[in-house]
Amino acid sequence: MDKLLDVISAEMKNAFEAAGYDRELGKVTVSNRPDLCEYQCNGAMAGAKVYHKAPIMIANDVAAGCADSKVFSGVEAVNPGFLNIKLKEEFIGAYLKEMAASEKFGLESPEKPLKIVIDYGGPNVAKPLHVGHLRSAVIGESIKRIARYNGHEVIGDIHLGDWGLQMGLIITELKERKPELPYFDEGFMGEYPEEAPFTISELEEIYPTASGKSKEDPEYKEKAMEATFKLQNGVRGYRALWNHIISVSVADLKKNYENLNVEFDLWKGESDVHDVIPGMVEYMKKEGYAHESEGALVVDVKEETDTKEIPPCMILKSDGASLYNTTDLATIKERMEKINPDHIIYVVDKRQELYFTQVFRCARKTGLVKPYTGLTFVGFGTMNGKDGKPFKTRQGGVMRLENLLNDINEQMYTKIMNNHEVPEEEARETAKMVALAAIKYGDLSNQASKDYIFDVERFTSFEGDTGPYILYTIVRIKSILNKYRALGKNVEDTDIRKPQGEAEKELMLSIAGFISMMQNAWEEMAPHKVCAYIYDLANAFNHFYHETKILQEEDEEKQAGYIALLKLTKEILETCIDVLGFAAPERM
Questions:
Q1: For 416-439, how does the pLDDT look when each residue is reduced to its tens digit (9 = 90+)?
Q2: φ and ψ at 289, to 5 degrees?
Q3: Residue 164 belongs to what H/E stretch?
Q4: Rounded to whole angstroms, how far apart are CA atoms 152 and 116?
Q5: Is the pLDDT of residue 551 over 80?
Q6: Which of 458, 414, 463, 405 is nearest to 435 (CA)?
Q7: What is the pTM of this model?
C-alpha cells in the first residue's frame, strides 16, 4: 500500500492542480509545529516566484479547494504562505485498518529483489570476542534483518581472520610446549587425533603469550613465520592442527554470537580464498592492471577528481606475501563467481574507510565486479566509556564480550528480583532478554558512524530512550490484551475504527509512519531510524494509555476499537525490535 505521506501529498497535489497551479508544489511533510497542525505544505512559497503572486494568495486558493476533501479535516493558510493540515479521523482509521489487514502492514516487496552479501563480524580465530566486536555484530545483524524485511535476499558472512601470522604463532607455541605431539613429526603417516590438544581457554592464553614472545624474540618470530608458510603450503600436520584451532574457536564464537542473537549464513574465512589468490594475481598482471612499485605489486586506484591522496592498492608485498587487500579482493572474486550478488556491504570500523576505498576501486578497475554491483562501506564509530575513551575494564584492559553480557545480565536479574516475586528460572530468562535489549538498543539508537558513550546505568533504565523502556511498553500491551481475553472476549474479533480523541489519533498517526520508516531505514542502512520510530511510538502509546480507560470502557464497540489498536501497536513494536535483533518477554 502507499505510504501515508504519499497519499496525503497526492491529495494536496490535486488541490494545487485544481486551483490552477503546478501539482508538484503540493508535496506534504510532517509538521515541525505539532502544536499547530499534523502536516504542512510549503509549496505556495515556491510557487510565488513562478506565478508572481504573494504566497498567501496561492495558499488561500489551495485551502479553499480542500473544503470537500475526504483526507483533510482542515487546511489552513497562514502567513506568509504555509498550509497547515489536519487529517480526517475517518481517513486515518481506514488507513490503519488497511495496514492491520495487510502483510507486513502494507510494506510492499521490491519489483526486483536484490541479492546481497553483508560482511560483518570479522573476528580472528583463537582470540576471545571483546567489546570491540560488539558494534560490527549488532549493526551488521540489524542491517541484514532490515534488508530481509524489505524483501531482499541477504547472505550474512562472518569473514573470519583464520590464515595469517597468528596461526603460525599458535603452532610455534604449541610445538615449544608439546613437541611430542604427532603433528610435528614429519614422518608420522597415521591418523591424527580427533580431539584437539587444547581447550578454548588454553588456546586463548596461547595466542597472547606467543604474540608477546614474537615481539621480544626475533628468532621466535622467524619460527612463527616459517610455521605460517608451512601451514599455507599444505604441511599435513600443520593443516590438521589448524583444523583443530578452527573447530574449537568456531564452536566458542557460535556460542557467543548466539548469546547476542546474531546469526551468520556463511562462516567463511581468509583461508577459503587462499587458492584463488595466485590466479587473481596472474590475471591482474596479464591484463596490465598491476605493476611493480618498490618491489611490491600494486594497482593504481587514484582518480582525477580526488582532492586527497589515495595510495595504490597493494596486491603483494615485496617478499611475495599476500595482505588483507589480497584476501579481500580474492573474497570479492569468489563471491561474484559463486553467489553473483547485486550488492556487497561491509560493516567495519570507520577508520578503515580509506582501505575500503582502495579495495572497492581496485575491484571495479580490474573487473572483479560488474559495473552495476553495489559496494558499500558502513563505517561505525567507537564505543567509549564515560571518560570518552574506548571502553575498558576497571583494570584498564579490553573487556571480553562474554563478561560484559554476563555483568549486564546480573544487573537486570537483580533489578527484576528486587521489584517482583518471580520464579528464578523465569527471572534469569527475562533478565537475559532485557539485558540484550539494553545493549543492542543502546548501540543501535546512535547513528552508526558516530562514537557513543556506553553507559550501563542509562542503557538498563526502564525510563527514557532505552531498550528496557521499549520492552516494558510491549509487556504492558500484552498484559492489557491478556486481561481482555480473561474477560471472555476475543482479541481477533476486534477492528480498527476512527480515533475518538487526540491521544488515540496521535498514536494512530505514529503507527501510520511505519512503511515510510522501514523503507528509509533500509535505503540509508540506518537502524537508528527504527529506534527513533519505536521510541516515539512507545511514547504515543503510553500517552494514550494514561489518557484512556481501556478495560473500564463500557461501550463494547469503542473498547474493541481500542483493543484492535493495541494489538496493531504491539505487532509493529515486535516487528521493529525483531529487525533490531532482540525480543520481548511475556512479563517483566
A1: 888 777 888 999 999 999 999 999
A2: -80, -40
A3: none
A4: 7
A5: yes
A6: 405
A7: 0.95
